[in-house]
Design goal:
CATH superfamily of the largest domain: Gcn5-related N-acetyltransferase (GNAT)
Strand content: 25-35%
Number of strands: 12
Helix content: 25-40%
CATH topology of the largest domain: Aminopeptidase
Number of helices: 8
Largest sheet: 12 strands, mixed
Strand order of the largest sheet: 1-2-3-4-5-12-6-11-10-9-8-7
Distance between the termini: 34 Å
CATH architecture of the largest domain: 3-Layer(aba) Sandwich
Structural class: alpha+beta
Number of domains: 2
Radius of gyration: 20 Å
Low-confidence stretches: none
Order of helices and strands: EHHEEEHEHEEHHEEEHEHE
Amino acid sequence: MTDTELTIRDFRPADAEAVAAAHRAGREHLVMSAETLLWMNARTNPEEHFRTFVAELDGRVVGAVRCGLVLGTTTTGVGYANGSVLPEFRRRGAATALLAAAERHLTAHGVAELHTWLDDEPAALAFGTARGYQLGREAHFGGRDLTLPLPSAPARPAGVELRPATDWADDPRPLFLVEADAIRDEPGEVVMDALDYEEWLRGDWARPDLDLGLTVVAVVDGEPVALTLAQTDGVDRYWSGFTACRREFRGRGLAKLAKLESLRRAAAAGHRRAYTSNDATNAPMLAINAWLGYERCAGERRGIKRLG
């Protein structure tokens, strides 16, 4: 085999470390472990048609793409494909071949519109547009050094408790209801208006990188009304998976309190870096993150392509 020969194949468990490395290469703001990749590829949901394609050059895994159908919405025919190639192996056809494999797979399962994320830098955006993707929404990544002091907590409204998600380990449905209500307003091209509890259990609650002790829930009169999901790499990096507040409880600073408490717990547990991402139009969350001390460290743009 020469270094110009390229192979695209399905993911194997032995690929996990290499695929995680390709995902993170040049993107210090992305928190992804090999364990999480193994879990993603082991779980099954026939409605999602999830699949990971791997690119090999000269027998070495140099990149991968994860793809499937978007679930949790009444909008049909929308898929996603997100991946990366190690920087030193780019411009050799691997990314193009990976994306083409994802497009073929999803077209066969009825996807008419494919969404991907592109790094907000000239080469990545040019790569996407050259392959038929129109640029859509912009997202901002923020990073924070957790060894630096956090802001002082605002006064907590009467009747509000901050509790870890471990308190709902046996019955997380109340937390699902918070997320299902809040995600309807999440900025995006697809309205997430049909979140399913069983799929949420399989796809969110069961994640191996979800840290229930760092996931903080704001409770009003005994009822969960806001939360921030915390994911980690198992070492010292923390990622805000999703921050949510039920619509009727917004404007009271509850999401801010939950997120601050989660970061406080993460710092106490020895995590050194925290990262988050928000749609560029999500002014309330961007303001909260700025108050928490996050600084913008990267960006990405949505790429959208009609298939078939």
